[in-house]
Amino acid sequence: MSLSPFESFRNLNQMRRELDRFFTTDFPVLKNTFGHSFGNLNVDVHETEHEVVAICDIPGLEKKEDVSIEIDNNVLSISGSINRTYEVQDEHVHRQERYSGNFQRSIGLPAIVKPEGVKATYKNGVLEVRMPKVKSDSRKRIDIDFD
After folding, report:
1. In this protein, which residues make up the domain named SHSP (predicted)?
2. How far is the CA of 28 from the CAs of 22, 40, 49, 57, 97, in angstroms?
């Protein structure tokens, strides 16, 4: 029988991934009468050797004050509002699928990041957040006083 190291947080990480997957699913109660979900952001998260990158589709932002990005306890939170600037009489609306209103999304990050070095850009309806990883030099060789 081979021995393997005990990973105390392995089950917690798996549970976090399952919860993230569960809460990113569109629920029927969150859909409008035309079948499109409101307030749910589509986010891709990947990591490189030096940073964690989140890419989020948010079409319709008009100014940077319309979106807020926060990192707390290694959770990325993106929130804001999309306001449509035109007025249409309700009786003339045939289909309304473009989202307007408030949105919010929180995502657990796969690595520990430094909030101080985060850079965010918004272009063509896509928000990209680049977060530098904390260098983990926690492994240290300990000398033993051996008698």
Report:
1. 34-147
2. 14, 12, 38, 21, 16
List, for the chain, all residue ranges whose pLDDT scores fall below the cut of 70. 1-10, 20-40, 85-90, 136-140, 147
Domains of the chain in sequence order: 10-132 (2.60.40.790)
Rounded to whole angstroms, how far apart are CA atoms 99 and 111? 32
Residue 105's CB: how many other CB atoms inside 10 A?
18
Q: How many CB atoms lie within 10 A of CB 46?
A: 10
Q: Tokens in use for 8?
A: 């105390």
Q: What is the dihedral of CA 85, 67, 25, 84, to 10 degrees?
A: 0
In 58-110 the beta strands, taken as DSSP E runs, fall at 67-72, 75-82, 101-108
pTM higher than 0.85: no
35-49 pLDDT, tens digit per residue, is: 344 456 789 999 999
Q: What is the pLDDT of residues 113-140, one digit of tens each?
A: 998 889 999 999 999 999 999 886 656 6
